[in-house]
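Please check this.
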Amino acid sequence: MKISGVSTNKVINLYKARNISKTQSKSKVNSKDSLQISELGKSLSSFSIEDNIVPDNKTVEKIKTQIRNGTYKVDTKALSQKIMEMIEGKEI
């Protein structure tokens, strides 16, 4: 049985053309990256390294001297209040 009009070159060219069109359609798909930031992340964005309150050298030296002399007193009420605020989330 002879099928006329169909050669192997035509079949191969048809296959290649179809394969090329598939790869082109895949490359046309625009994939975009996305990023979602949680509420915690958004709240943390308001903080920065520069926000840290760093006492001046004079204050640091004063505290160091008091510690060396044994005269430095910790305000336990203020300390415990700050700890509670941090635990409750008021400072975060």
Notes: Residues 54-92 form one domain. The helical segments are 8-28, 39-44, 57-69, 76-88. The chain has four helices and no strands.
